[in-house]
Every structure is written in structure tokens, then in C-alpha cells.
Amino acid sequence: MKKTALLVSLAVLGIGAAHAADPAKINWGKIPAVTVPLFFPGQSSYEWLRSEAHEGAVKEVVRGDSCTSCHDEEDAEKDIGEEIVKGGRLEPRPVKGKSGYKALKVQAAYDAKNAYLRFQWKTDNAYPGSEHQYLRFDGKEWKVFGYPKLDKPVQDGQEMGIYEDRMSIMIDDGKVLGFANQGCWLTCHDGQRDMAKQFTKDEVAGNALLQAIKKRDVRKYLPDTRTDPSDWKTGKSVEDIAKIKAAGGFVDLIQWRAHRSNPVGMTDDGYVLEFRLSDSGKDMFGGNADAKTHQPKFMWDASKVGYKSITVDQLRKGDHYLIREQNAVPFDPNAGWKEGDMIPDYIVSRADAKGSAADNNAIASWKDGMWAVVMVRPLGLANDDDKALKAGGVYNVGFAVHDDNITTRGHQVSFVKTIGFGSKADIKAVKLP
């Protein structure tokens, strides 16, 4: 595959024409670009920053100083990332060929209706990471095929590395103490997936907060949701956390996903508080495996795409999205399945996306090793799980890119930046005519 592109009209995106720009027609050549350095963080966490292992910086971190008050030299991010990615104290499972640094080009614009955030970055691979894991028939049953590169089966050569590319932004409006200086490290903790001291199933099963919110693992959280910010097991009550949320003490998390949101011109919309949570409503993607039979729920409509499944030799040779309202039909267990047949493990649907979870739109293209993604975020959202972007506002933001078939901490991240909509900031959004 040499190129993949998605250009979505205003009508498809659901953007009202009045006072709203068509993101595909914005003249980005006239909008200033800021290059934001991203680096591989390994297992650096909230706890690691506050430990003696963070040589000579513990007092400053605990005091609340910014990361860049120390790491302010030119190419600091590049030096940090390229050292960590090799392996060692912060990377126990180095990924072969993984880059430690990535330059992210950021542009921003806004009008009376929306904010438009454009990102460009070069992928580690010579193809877009537009595929996610599959369900594969082994002759008897359907099993998951393809895992992210940090997983042991991939590193041991037992499984193929398959995972979608992602572009993420965290947004704070000044209500999360410490985010302006230490950014996403407030959300990244020991105990989480692929982090130091990773949780056990028994620990999760015995944890009152995780059981109350019906979660089966440990993901991002903010320190204020724990009685001991450095111990994920010490969760506050659901009632106390609800008060924190009502006061705006959460960070927005918008994720563009090359497989699970891009095919329908959207990004997902979530937030981080006691866990990494989706906004209310329904996401544009969902699992395609039946919980009881483990068979797929949907397969491709052969009358529309020419096939009902693919095989491994067809990977990365086309856009293999399963879109419920466009190219999918209910799975037929008697359709003559053969060993090696594969169907996506996720079904995507714009029609099914509802509520606050469906606020954000996007367009994207990949060409010559470079993604270009434009996120479209409505201004003035009043949902209780969103940060409302407004003209004149300045927000603390952190960026992350996942590519190279990887997830969890296998991304490149930024130190905190600011974005202003008509206001002075690191990244200044331009008002569109």
C-alpha cells in the first residue's frame, strides 16, 4: 500500500455549514506550524519521577517544578528518548527498530463553531498502521491474531505485530493541579499495563474502586483520585471522585485511531480521572467477537467488497475496515470457513456512535511515510466529561503518537505545551475568516 486517504464532507462529518470551515479545504499553508518534539518514555512514571532513581530531581518534582525546568537544553527530548529506547532501567523489553524520537508538526485554527487541530508525523514503518488485531479461524475455532509489539508473544516471535496507529492529545483547562508543569506523567503510574510492578488479576479482583467501576485492569489515573497518589490500590470512594469530576478535576483525552475511528471520519472522546474512561454515550467502535461463541458477529459483505474474509498474505495491501453500515453483514457460521480466514476483531460504525463520546470528527491521509490528521472539536461543549474549548482560552496540552504496531507506553510523548485560541501560547490557533 502506497497511500491511504480519507476526505470527508461537511455533511458526513455532521458539521453544520453555517460558520464552520470544511477541514479538507482549510489553507494550512497560511497557518503557522510548531514542531513539538516527542520522545520514548519507557516506564518513567509518576512514581519514578518522585524516586531517587530520578537522579537529582526528586525535590524539584515533588515541589511541582516543570519537567522543562531541568530538561531545557536543545535536543533534550531526542537525547532522552534515544537513550531509553535502547533498553535499561526504564525499558526492560526494548522493541527492535523502535525510534526514540519523533518530530510532530502541529497547526491549529478555529472559527465560530469548531477548533481544527492538524498533526503531521513520519511513521516508523513504510506503511500506515491502519490495521488492528483480527479473529482468525484455525480450522476449529476463531482466535485473536496479531498483538502489539510490547507483548511477549510478539517479542518471542510467536505472534505477528499488528496494532493501529494513534494520535492523542490530553487537554487541561487549569483545573488539574500539576498538569501544567508535569503533564501526562500525572496519569502514568506503576502498576498499569506494561509498567513497573504491573497489577495482578487478584489485586484487581480485590480492589474496591476497580470493582465498583467494573474494570478488570489498571490504566491511567490522576493522583487526586487516590488516598496515596503513588499507590493505585488506594482509591477514593466513588462519591468523592464524582465531586472531583464535578469540579472539573479531570483531563480530556482525544484519540484518533487509524483503524477504529478513522474509517468513519471521527476520533474517540474520553477523559482521565480514576481510570482512562470513555465519554458518556457510545464509541464508534466495538468488539466483533461474540462473548459466548467467540465467533465474529459480523463479516465482510462479499457482494460489496468481493470477499467475506482475508488471509495473512493480504495484510497491509488495502484498507481492511469492517464498517457496519457500509460493508458488513451478520456472520454466517456455515459460510465454508477455512483455516487461516481472518475477520477484523473490531466493528466500526458512525451511525452507532452516540452522545458525548461522538463529539469529535477527523480527516486523515497517509502519503510517503507521513500521516496528516486534522481533528475537529466543537467549541463550547457543555458535557460534564469534556473540557470546553473557547475563543480566548489557553489550555495545557500533551501529545502522544503510537505507531510501529504498538500500544500502552510504547508511544512517543511530549512535555507540556500550551495552545491558545486567539491568545498567546506555544501553539496559537488562527481565527479563520
Automatic annotation (TrEMBL):
A matching Pfam family: EB_dh
InterPro entries: Cyt-c552/DMSO_Rdtase_haem-bd (IPR019020)
Domain Cytochrome c-552/DMSO reductase-like haem-binding: 25-414
SMART domains, per database record: EB_dh (SM00887)
Keywords: Electron transport, Heme, Iron, Metal-binding, Signal, Transport
Membrane spanning residue stretches: none
Signal peptide: 1-20
Protein's name in the database: Cytochrome c-552/DMSO reductase-like haem-binding domain-containing protein
